[in-house]
Amino acid sequence: MTETLIKIQNVSMTFETRKGRVEAVSDFSLDIERGEFVCIVGAAGCGKSTLLNMLAGFVQPTGGSISLDGDIIKSVEPRCGIIFQNYALMPWMTVLDNVSFGPRLKYISKKERHAAARLWIEKVGLKGFEDAYPGELSGGMQQRVALSRALANEPDVLLCDEPFAALDAMTRQLMQEELVRIQRDTGKTVLFITHSIDEALLLSDRVVVMSARPGRVKAVYKNDLPHPRKMEVQISERFLELKREVWDLVQEEVMRSIRERA
Ligand SMILES: Nc1ncnc2c1ncn2[C@@H]1O[C@H](COP(=O)(O)OP(=O)(O)OP(=O)(O)O)[C@@H](O)[C@H]1O
Ligand SMILES: [Mg+2]
After folding, report:
1. CA 141 to centroid of chain Cα atoms
2. What is the number of the ligand 1 atom nearest to the C-alpha of 51?
3. Which residues, in sequence order, are CB contacts of 224 under 8 Å at separation 6+?
4. Dihedral, CA of residue 119, residue 165, residue 55 and residue 96, to nearest 10
5. How many domains does the structure of the chain reveal?
6. Which range marks the domain in which residue 136 is found?
7. What local confidence, expressed as pLDDT, does residue 1 receive?
8. Cα(117)–Cα(95) distance, rounded to whole angstroms?
9. DSSP label at residue 58
C-alpha cells in the first residue's frame, strides 16, 4: 500500500528584491509517496532550488503549504537530508568527522557516531578514506562523503539539488548507479533535481517537469523503465520515447521563457 509522505499544496514563493518582486514558484502541488524516487526537471531559473529549499525548511513559502508525514514544515527540517552540487563539506574536518557531524550535534556518543559513520562511509565505497580531508579527494569522492553525511543523520527524505552536475560523465554514471542501489536498499524517499533528462530517467520512479518561472507542475511521468537501468535500458525504445516527450516539454518552456523575457 502506498502512503503519502510529502504533500506540497498550492505552494508559491515570491521574493521581494531591490528590482521588484520575483515570483519564483507559483501554485505548485505534488504528493510524494514514502519510498518514492522523484526527479524534477526544468529550465534554468524555473524555481527548482527554491522548491527544494522550502522542503528543507530553509525558507517559508509565501503561499500554500508543505507537509511531511502530516506536519507542516515551518523551520529547518531534521527529517530531511540535503546534498548540494558543491558538496558543502567542512574542509578542516576528516571524512569521518564530516560524516559524523550531524549525529554529534544530537549528542550521540563518539563511539556510536563513529561506528555508524564508518558503516555509511563503507556503503558509499570510501572505506580506507576515513582520515582523509576533503581537499585530498576527487569531486566524485567528495560527493560520496556528502551522500554518506546526509544518510548518517538517518533522514526520512533525501533532497538532492543537482548533486552530480559537476562530475565527469563516468563518475556521474557510477554515482547514479550507487544512489539507486542505496535508495532501493534503504527505502528512503528521494527528491532529486536535475537538468539532465537522462539522469532523471535513470534514477526516478516519477519525473516531474516544471514550467518556466514561476515554476509549477507542467507534467508528471510515471517512469516504468525496468531496473537495473544499465546501458541496455538507455538505448531502449521506451527510454528514447520518454526522453523525447520530456525534452519537448522542457524545450517548450525554455522557448516560452525566452519569448517572455524578450
Ligand atoms: N533569495 C532570493 N532572492 C531573490 N530572488 C531569488 C532568491 N532565490 C531565488 N531567486 C530567484 O528565483 C528564481 C528561481 O531561482 P532558483 O534558484 O530556484 O531556480 P533554479 O530552477 O534552481 O535555477 P538553476 O537551474 O539555475 O539552478 C530566479 O529568478 C532567482 O533569481
Ligand atoms: Mg538551482
Report:
1. 18
2. 18
3. 238
4. 20
5. 2
6. 92-154
7. 66
8. 9
9. S
- Domain stops at, among 129, 154, 179: 154
Residues that place a CB less than 5 A from ion ligand 2: 48-49
24 close to ligand 1 (CB < 6 Angstrom): yes
Ligand 2 centroid distance, CA of 116 (Å): 31
Work out the number of other CB atoms within 10 angstroms of the CB of residue 251: 11
Average pLDDT of every residue of the chain: 93
Residue 107: what pLDDT? 77
Give the dihedral sign, CA 232/236/241/247.
positive
The C-alpha cell at 52 is 527544494
Question: Can you give the CATH number for the domain in which 209 is found?
Answer: 3.40.50.300
3-state SS, one letter per residue, for 173-217:
HHHHHHHHHHHHHHCCEEEEEECCHHHHHHHCCEEEEECCCCECE
Domain final position from 121, 154, 187: 154
Tens of pLDDT, residues 160-199: 999 999 888 988 998 899 899 999 999 999 999 999 999 9
Which atom of ligand 1 lies nearest, measured to the CA of 47? 18
Which of the pair, 172 or 11, is modelled with greater confidence? 11
Please tell me whether residues 70 and 197 are part of one structural domain.
yes
Question: Which protein residue has the closest C-alpha to ligand 1 atom 20?
Answer: 45
Residue 223, all three cell numbers = 517512469
Q: Name the band, by pLDDT with cuts 50, 70 and 90, for residue 260.
A: confident
Interval 2-17 mean pLDDT: 95
The set of residues, in sequence order, having a beta carbon less than 8 Å from that of 32 and lying 6+ positions away, is: 4, 5, 6, 7, 8, 38, 189, 191
Q: Are 120 and 145 in contact (CB under 8 A)?
A: no
The DSSP output letter for 135 is: G
